Every structure is written in C-alpha cells, then in structure tokens.
Amino acid sequence: MSKFKLRGVPRTGTSAVLTEERPSGLTHEGAPGYARDARGELFLLAVTSLVAEDTFYEAAAARDARLRALVARVAVDDGEWVLRLVGWLRTGVHLRSVAIVVAVEAVRARLEAGIAGGNRAIVSAALERADEPGELLAHWASRYGRAFPQPVKRGVADAVARLYSERSLVRYDGQARGYRFADVLELTHPAPRDARQSALFRYALDRRHDRADQVPGELEVLRARQRLLAVPVEHRRAVLVGGAEALGRAAMTWEQVAGWLQGPLDAGVWESLVPSMGYMALLRNLRNLDEAGVSDDVAAAVAARLADPGEVATSRQLPLRFLAAHRTAPSLRWGWALERALQASLGAVPALPGRTLVLVDRSGSMFCRLSRRSVLTRADAAAVFGSALAVRAQRADLVEFGSTSRVLRVRRGEAVLSLADRFGDLGGTDTAEAVRRHYRGHDRVIIVTDEQAWAGRRGADPTAAVPAQVPVLTFNLAGYQHGHGPSGVGNRHTFGGLTDAGFAAIPLLEAGRDQHWPF
C-alpha cells in the first residue's frame, strides 16, 4: 500500500482516492498516468458508469470487466465498505444498473471466498424500486445461472417485502419483464408485511398463472383500476373532464392514460393530469405541455412546483436532469423555474472564498453521450458543475480548455443554465498548458475533466505548475484507469461522479480535515 502514499508533500486533509507516488502507466492520450488504489479506482469507475455503455476510450465490455474485477477484489477485503458503496450508488446518486452489478459481483466473490454474513444486506441495498428484485435475479441468471444462493434469495425477499405494493404491481409487472412479480415471489418466498400485502402476493401469483377471476376486496387500488378499464372508450374523456381523481385512485400514470384513452393527449387531458403527476413526470413532459397548448395558469402551477426546493429535494433529481429539460423544452415559461431547480439540486456547492481558478475540459473525448438514451454529454456535465462553482465563488476565473483555452466571463447574476450554453468544443486535452497559462496566484484550482491529458513535452502532471501549498481539486467524470496527477495527500485531491456529492468536501479539505467516502 505504500506506493499509494505521497511523500514530501505538505499535508492538509486526505481525500478518499489515493494514487501511487509516481506515474506507472499512461493516460489514453499518452501522458504519464497515475494508478489508484483498488477502492479509489472502483469508486471513480462505479460512480461514472452506466453498465453496457461504451465511453470514448473504453469499450463497454472492457469497462464492465474492469468493474467486475475491482468489485471482486475489494468485496473480499472489505465487505462493509462495499455495502456502503452499493447503498450510496442506489440512493445517493441514483445509479440503478451499476448498483445491481456491484452487488451481484460482490456477493459472488464473497461466496466463492467462503465469506458468510453481510451478503444478504448487500443484495437488499441495491434494490429501491419494485422492478429491481426481478432485474437483479435476471442479471445473476445471465452471469451465473439460475441456481440462486440463499443470501441472494433472502436479500431479494427483504426488498420485495419493502417494495411490492398495488401501485408497483400496476406499474412494473408487465408481461415483457424477464422476471415478473410472481416469478420473484416463487423463487424467494418473502414473508408479507401485513394482510394486505399477503393478498397482493396471492393475486400476483394467480394472475401470473391465469387463475385471477376477480380482484380481492382488500386491494382497493386494483379494484379502482378494474372499474376504470370497464368504462367504454367513448366515455373515457368525460371521466377526465370531470376530474382526474379516479386516475389517482387507480394508480394510472400519464403513459397509461394515453393507451386507456386510445387517442391523443390534448390540452384538456394534460390540464386534468397535471395535478396528479409526479415531479419527474412533469419534468419529462414540458415540451408535450407546450405542444398541447396548456394554459398559462396551468404552466405557472407546473413552474412553481419545479422551482420549489422541497419538491426538488424529494424528487432526488440529478442536476443534469434540469439541463436536459432546458435543452428539450426551451420555452421561456420554464427557464427561470428550471434554473431555480438546478440551483436547489446543487445545494452542496460551496461559496468559495478568495480567488478560484475553475478549468473545464472541453476536449473531444468529453463529448461522448452519458448514455445511449441521453441527449447530454460529459462535456455538458463539466459545464454545469464548473459554472455552478464559478457563479457561487467570491471571485472566480472560469476557463474552458482543450488543445487551446479561453476565459469565459461570468456576468453578475448570470444563470448557470445560460452560462453552460456558452461553452464550446476545443479539440485535444492540453491540461498542463491550460493550468500554466491561467494560474495567477489563485487560492485554489479546480479541474473538471476525464483526466485523459495529452502526452508530449508538457504532458506531465498538470498540477505541478501550481505551488504545493495551493489546493488542486480534480473532478473526474469518466473513471478511466489512470489519472492525470497524484491524489490523496497534501493539496492534491480527486473526486468522482456526475453529482454534487464531492463539492461538500472542498472546505473540509482546505480546513485540514480528512475527507473519506461520501457514504
């Protein structure tokens, strides 16, 4: 472990991600690369990963194999740390697929090593939505066959008792699912938490095996849904015009309403649905509301909900969701509400004192999409977080860099969403030159990047151009194997991910306090 301790560097707080003292590898662009210890590499990879997704430099298969190998190694050595990581991935940064993969691989490795105890909890910690017990079983079966070990069954059963309800049955028990609710029940035999859930379990089993003649009286949501489905198609719009309360009692989502009506969702339908829609549903449908022509009064009510800090906190939306909504629904009536929502979601971003240099990577590798379904890129994520830091800092120089670099003037009172839209595409990754060119006695330097710096005469550690007593904080948005500089002791620190979780560590580290994992 000594190779991951930096010597001869003035010590302040110690960050979680530790690197070796000297580079032993290369970045993907050929610069000296610093390897991280196993937990640090796993943390950065997991928090930046969407399973089975290619990144600019790393194919999905290679990336997933590296994740599995790291999990297997760390889980055997420190199962308690992996348990905390899995829970945080699922509930702290809302990464569903990677939480399941880490849990499966951790439990598999621990069982093969003969380690009992704690495995059931790791499985349960990965499951927070009612479709996920089936997804975890499907993933285990695809990797290791359909012989499920007892800790897996028990962990899934714990989650089932916590998550299965009438509303979740309506939403997630579709015939296209690989493992339906009844399949999970038959495999894991969970104990129902009360009489109502016991009736739900029986009904799910009967429905799966075509034995469900009628809905039991205890299941009020399913009975309300049955009544709605019995309404003739030609009378269904009248049900909506009379009020959407019946839809709420039947747990019918806006997606399901479109099928139930067997026709378009016009302004009147949307205006009936809006009061019962959840926060995420509203955020996803802003363009649909505009195109349908909902009234300004309804739009104002939606905007008020979007901007409400309590609603933002309860919804647990990632900051980038608001940028995506801004890009897909650019109507002026949503802009200020989305900006306020974004600011609320970035509550952990500190108002840094003194002078701060914020460097945002806009090289070609940052422009790969976050996922196949996303309209956003890692460059977008970097722009949002860099802008938020600059807007809140006492005095900040905001710089975008690639093969060249330029300063973006932060206008007084400028919105983060507006500022993020002013960034460009600057080609390569000459991080070291950007630091040398723009560092002018700042109190700290923050670099938001994938760390894949250029090689060449000036391709060495880009943090070396900053005096040792000045903090340099790198926010890694890709999780590749090698980093562009040292981290872990003194004034050199690395964080990871597409959330604001790391920002809270900045003042702690500058105060000389050790800052470990965000979980």
From TrEMBL:
Record keyword RNA-binding present: yes
Locations listed in the record: Cytoplasm
Coiled coil: none
Transmembrane segments: none
A Pfam family reported for this protein in Swiss-Prot or TrEMBL: TROVE
Keywords: Cytoplasm, Metal-binding, Ribonucleoprotein, RNA-binding
TROVE domain span: 25-354
Matches recorded under PANTHER family: 60 KDA RIBONUCLEOPROTEIN SSA/RO (PTHR14202), RNA-BINDING PROTEIN RO60 (PTHR14202:SF0)
Membership in a protein family: Belongs to the Ro 60 kDa family.
Name of protein: TROVE domain-containing protein
Organism listed in the record: Nocardioides nanhaiensis
